[in-house]
């Protein structure tokens, strides 16, 4: 999620150093990253809930008084002001005295809660459900699951009897019922009727007037081969509708009953090729479940194959793969068989393009397990392939670190794979070598060679996912080298392969590349629009290591590219720190340390900016190494800090002639040479 975890897992609204999340899908709550906030009493929660119902609009004091009291006392306005003041202290505890509130604001005749759209669970629920209308079923299902998981009880639960909540509660409740039915329909479209039945059964019991729910339940039962049960559901629907509503079933229910009695082929998803595959999956997995013992090693290895395939689907699939991967490794280690553990660890050969881990803690644990298994494997050449996969795994999972072990493991893996003449093994090892090719700036040419070898190898041996990886690597490398014609060709080839082989994550990178192309051409407005559109696609992709902080960083780089330190800047004047600045209330993710000096400069806090500049860590060895070095150079130039400028020059010099940051395939700060041209570094 873009804003970190708040209470009930909700994103949170920035308030000073904290963000606040609001929950109304159940009892009304507020919370920050540190836990729930103490809302004093029912009147305080009522004020907060009433303002959330208004959806950022101003609610006049007179309306609030009427809504809070059936018969307002003489001191109602004063009491309301006391409630608001108490809420402000809870929601913005770090706000200095006598400064205006930024979240619960006074405006005109009343008050408004200026929460962002993703800070209220109900608003996020609506947005998520709306997006599923245009998504294919595999992408829509996890979004619907996430949206429905936000519900903790009836909306605005403790204010169910209030007139001011009634319309909003009814609207949200209806939307939830529609979402439940849409999820069931999506499961049916994916050939998963057994998954749909339990929820639908409970749904029709709680809401017997919803004819579409009855229809979906009967259809799900029929597609499980339970024709009698399906007809029984339709008979029950007829009885319930007649007794409770005094009406007969509508035309869709009547038509479904006739089609079931006639065993109409149109009801059977097997009539379509895709759903025939779904039936085959259901049959085969049921047979596997019956014949392979629950604790069998074969079952564990099959599970790892499923986890690997799940990862390339992106979104919820990628998150689920990460969640289950360590469990599979732990289960393998319990057998005490290092060869089995090596196969389980090494089977997760999912091509990776981004050099920052989505889950650093998981990566460390995988590396530790791989190292233990390497040490435990028996000697001799019979285990060379297993060792190679473990080494490639170590190289991949140690991405972005400064340990020598990562590059060493990558070299050993590639050498072993070449000796074994195993194309799939070599592709896996080359992926590890790519991840460890960021030991300094200016290595785009080396990565271009890795990408070219991957493309040629994969095309010869049908390794589609690695051919896509090679295309994306070359897209990045050619962008760094300013060869956008070649980068365009690789982007187009990657998109064609992704469409043909159902690889949805590829479009995330090619769309961001399109935004980079606009930025590199100097079309700032078009680039900004493209970045914002690309960020929407990135949301929910399951790649927090890529997502966090990327959009604000790309927009900042877009502005900075026009204001790089130049040879005309004097040593005393530095660079105009007021343009451009950076807002620290945004979520900068891992890039915050390099943004902070610029933000402090923009607010005139030069001493603090100088301290932040001097406290900067070594830049991570990843695709944005040159970009953060340029941010450091920008702040150093503005502050006239010669030591920091020389340090930035030393780091950037190997990339002379390249485009700063463009090797990411996502953003750029313009030519590295411009950033090297400041007189204080040119005279060193």
TrEMBL record:
The keyword Transcription regulation applies. The keyword Kinase does not apply. It comes from the Bacteria. One of its GO terms (molecular function) is DNA binding. Residues 10-115 form the OmpR/PhoB-type domain. InterPro entries: AfsR-DnrI-RedD_regulator (IPR051677), BTAD (IPR005158), OmpR/PhoB-type_DNA-bd (IPR001867), Sig_transdc_resp-reg_C-effctor (IPR016032), TPR-like_helical_dom_sf (IPR011990), WH-like_DNA-bd_sf (IPR036388). GO terms for biological process: phosphorelay signal transduction system; regulation of DNA-templated transcription. Keywords: DNA-binding, Transcription, Transcription regulation, Two-component regulatory system. Residues 10-115 bind DNA. Belongs to the AfsR/DnrI/RedD regulatory family. This is SARP family transcriptional regulator. It comes from Streptomyces avermitilis.
């Amino acid at each position: 999620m873009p804003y970190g975890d708040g209470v009930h897992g909700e994103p949170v609204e920035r308030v000073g150093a904290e963000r606040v999340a609001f929950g109304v899908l159940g009892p009304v709550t507020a919370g920050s990253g540190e836990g729930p906030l103490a809302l004093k009493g029912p009147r305080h929660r009522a004020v907060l809930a009433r303002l959330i119902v208004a959806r950022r609009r101003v609610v006049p004091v007179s309306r609030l008084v009427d809504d809070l009291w059936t018969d307002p006392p003489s001191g109602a306005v004063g009491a309301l002001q006391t409630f608001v003041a108490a809420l402000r202290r809870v929601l913005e505890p770090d706000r200095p005295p006598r400064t205006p509130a930024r979240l619960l604001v006074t405006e005109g005749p009343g008050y408004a809660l200026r929460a962002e759209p993703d800070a209220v669970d109900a608003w996020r629920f609506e947005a998520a459900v709306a997006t599923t209308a245009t998504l294919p079923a595999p992408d829509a299902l996890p979004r619907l699951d996430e949206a429905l998981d936000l519900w903790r009880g009836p909306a605005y639960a403790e204010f169910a009897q209030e007139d001011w909540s009634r319309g909003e509660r009814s609207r949200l409740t209806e939307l939830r019922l529609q979402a439940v039915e849409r999820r069931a329909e999506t499961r049916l479209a994916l050939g998963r009727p057994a998954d749909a039945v339990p929820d639908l059964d409970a749904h029709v019991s709680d809401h017997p007037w919803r004819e579409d729910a009855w229809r979906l339940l009967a259809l799900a039962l029929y597609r499980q081969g339970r024709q009698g049960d399906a007809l029984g559901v339709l008979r029950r629907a007829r009885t319930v509708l007649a007794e409770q509503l005094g009406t007969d079933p509508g035309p869709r229910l009547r038509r479904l009953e006739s089609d079931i009695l006639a065993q109409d082929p149109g009801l059977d998803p097997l009539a379509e090729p895709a759903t025939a595959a779904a039936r085959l999956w259901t049959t085969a997995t049921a047979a596997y479940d019956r014949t392979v013992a629950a604790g069998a090693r074969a079952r564990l290895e099959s599970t790892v194959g499923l986890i690997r395939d799940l990862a390339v689907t992106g979104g919820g699939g990628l998150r689920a793969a990460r969640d289950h991967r360590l469990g599979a490794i732990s289960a393998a280690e319990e057998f005490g068989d290092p060869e089995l553990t090596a196969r389980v660890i090494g089977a997760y050969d999912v091509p990776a393009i981004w050099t920052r881990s989505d889950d650093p803690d998981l990566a460390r644990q995988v590396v530790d397990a791989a190292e233990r298994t390497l040490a435990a494997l028996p000697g001799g050449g019979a285990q060379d392939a297993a060792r190679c996969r473990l080494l490639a795994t170590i190289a991949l999972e140690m991405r972005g670190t400064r340990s020598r072990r990562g590059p060493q493991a990558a070299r050993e893996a590639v050498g072993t794979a070449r000796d074994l003449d195993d194309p799939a093994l070599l592709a896996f090892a080359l992926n590890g070598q790519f991840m460890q090719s960021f030991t300094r700036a200016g290595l785009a040419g080396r990565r271009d060679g890795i990408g070219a070898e991957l493309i040629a190898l994969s095309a010869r041996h049908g390794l589609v996912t690695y051919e896509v990886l090679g295309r994306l690597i070359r897209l990045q490398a050619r962008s760094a080298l300013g060869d956008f014609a070649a980068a365009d060709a690789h982007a187009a080839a990657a998109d064609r392969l992704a469409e043909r082989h159902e690889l949805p994550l590829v479009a995330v990178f090619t769309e961001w590349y399109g935004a980079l192309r606009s930025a590199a051409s100097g079309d700032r407005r078009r680039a900004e629009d493209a970045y914002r559109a690309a960020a929407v696609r990135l949301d929910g992709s399951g790649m927090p290591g890529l997502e966090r902080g990327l959009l604000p960083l790309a927009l900042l780089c877009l502005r900075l590219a026009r204001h790089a330190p130049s040879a005309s800047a004097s040593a005393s004047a530095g660079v105009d720190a007021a343009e451009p600045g950076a807002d620290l209330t945004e979520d900068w993710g891992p890039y915050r340390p390099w943004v902070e000096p610029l933000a402090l400069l923009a607010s005139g806090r030069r001493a603090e900016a100088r301290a932040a500049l001097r406290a900067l860590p070594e830049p991570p060895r990843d695709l944005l190494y040159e970009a953060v070095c340029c941010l450091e150079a920008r702040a150093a130039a503005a502050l006239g800090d010669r030591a920091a400028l020389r340090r930035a020059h030393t780091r950037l010099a190997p990339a002379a002639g390249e485009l700063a940051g463009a090797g990411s395939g996502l953003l750029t700060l313009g030519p590295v040479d411009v950033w090297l041209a400041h007189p204080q570094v040119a005279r060193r």
